[in-house]
Amino acid sequence: MDVNDLVNNLKEMRKYTLMVLDGVREEDWFRFPDGCHTHIGWQVGHLAIAEYGLTLRSIRGAQDSDDFIPAEYSKLFGRGSVPAAASENPSIDEIRTAFEAVHEHVMQEVPGFSEELLAENVPFDHPLFKTKKQALSWCVNHEMTHAGQIAMIRRLLGYEIRF
Q1: pTM of the full predicted structure?
Q2: pLDDT digits (tens, 9 = 90+) for 56-92
Q3: With contact defined as beta carbons under 8 Å apart, do 139 and 55 qualify?
Q4: How many CB atoms are closer than 10 A to CB 160?
Q5: Are 38 and 149 in contact (CB under 8 A)?
């Protein structure tokens, strides 16, 4: 699979994620359904920081111009973080802005990455991938996992599943 195929997969997966987010009322973004330890706000913030980390940061490295993803998102939404109450989170608009901005940058930058660059190892250890191309591929699967969790949260909150 070449880089353009992976970019197309990311684009299609994002369409699905947006579909499962569609219609969720703002008052439900930070609600913890009974028996569930997460909420939609955390899921979307996590997708933003994870897409940045699995693609741009892993492949080309963090850059000073990466101000589209707030530094505190790693602590709030990164691996090992714990979903918090609404008052401890950025606003929905801030989370959505970062979520959308990261994806826009990925869609602009990643198609220009060479196969040679993508064949390099990522600069950290991960149990599921070794190379930058594998990290990019995992990003698609990772988003699919969390889109499924958003769909489950929707259902637990009483939303009808339409897809």
Answers
A1: 0.96
A2: 999 999 999 999 999 999 999 999 999 999 999 999 9
A3: yes
A4: 7
A5: yes
